[in-house]
Amino acid sequence: MVGVAEQIVPVTLEERSYDIVLHPGLLATVGERLRALTTSPKIGVVTDRHVARRYLQVVLRSLCKAGYDPTPIILPPGERAKTLSTMAKILDALARQKFERQSFLLALGGGVVGDIAGFAAAVYQRGIPFVQVPTTLVAQVDSSVGGKTGVDHRLGKNLIGAFHQPRAVLIDPLTLRTLPRREWIAGLAEVIKYGVIADEEFFGFLEQKIPALLKLDEEPVIRAIKRSCEIKAQVVVTDERESDRRRILNYGHTIGHALESLSGYRGLIHGEAVGIGLVQEADLACHMGLCGRDVVERIKSLVQRAGLCDQMSHASFTSLWGAMQHDKKVTGGQVIGVWPVRIGKVVMQPIEKEVCAAWLQTKRGHGNRSSSGRGAPKHPVRRKARAGK
To answer: What's phi and psi for 291, nearest 5 deg?
Structure first.
């Protein structure tokens, strides 16, 4: 990948505009790239233990070489660390080191690190600048772009947060080579999502290239990341604060977030839950008469070929609906879903409790046996979870 030309995707938001920069080997040049963004010597590098072992030293060397005074802030790994108490540790470190309003935070890691570091940057001294350096596929194609930051609440995912745009998103696709295979496959769910919501041609590319993507072949990986970022950027530019069109990015996440919550953030990782959500929300759209069975089967086939599970475990309707009610997209007590009408086009509309119950009963009647892709993890959804009470 090292010979690949640098790719730049602009996110045009007036004074909050920034670039997504995609280049193999970029981690070693982070320091010099930041020179155009800040002259403040203090930079807090927020990462987790797993990422720190592989990439923290190369980033620290680059920052020191460029004249910065970096402060590493190492968090526990995993979604369960995405809490207010963990964020308080970041704020404590910034205060002890006397960080000022012009000081920078750098988020080095996956979506959890990016979300929590971005939220800390949003609230410390009422807002300091930060840069996203995502190291997982989910973070590179989705969570690092758009300025949504936050932490989880015991009753739901991302219920506490703020919009705070980064000053840049710096993507080194070489980090994907050390990503655990489970994390890589899970990230493909977010990539597939973009094809469904906005680009049938891209969906077709994924159908054709999924074997190459699974092997981490250079050209299709770069193209998949870049096109996903382009679609995300286009949506964010039209609706920065998720008042309307940006909600289409939540396709697969209404059920997906509910499943994560019901598992207590222990079983399914984010992309796995979204993969199930892509198929199940398409199936629910078909039940509502919004799309044909062919659309469902095409999405299901690609999800399975990516190695992702496509079926829910047998959570009760009460627990599933209860978790969906705690989703941050609920408006006036109504669950607002994103539903495919064809590949490349979705609509947003509320789902009634009775309709969802009838759909789930139909699935139970047909025998909802798990139909997972090759190597897909099987993680049970606990029936009695906090969000379902």
So the answer is: -145, 165
Known catalytic membership, residue 386: no
Catalytic site includes residue 126: yes
Catalytic residue flag (residue 253): yes
Q: pLDDT by residue (tens digit) across 25-51?
A: 999 999 999 998 988 999 999 999 999
CA angle (33, 35, 41) in 5-degree steps: 125
Q: Look up 98 and say whether it is catalytic.
A: no
What are the chain's domains? 7-178 (3.40.50.1970), 181-388 (1.20.1090.10)
287 classed as catalytic? no
Q: What is the pTM of this model?
A: 0.87
- The radius of gyration computed from the CA coordinates of the chain, to the nearest angstrom, equals 20
- Is residue 379 annotated as part of the catalytic site, yes or no? no
Q: Each residue of 256-268: pLDDT tens digit?
A: 989 988 888 788 8
- The pLDDT-based confidence of 373 (bands split at 50, 70, 90) is very low
Point out the catalytic residue in the list 148, 193, 247, 298.
148
Query: Contact at 8 Å (CB) between 1 and 222?
Result: yes
The residue annotated as part of the active site, out of 183, 190, 260, 272, is 190
Contact 254, 324 (CB under 8 A): yes
* Active site annotation includes 257: yes
Residue 359 C-alpha from the chain's centroid: 27
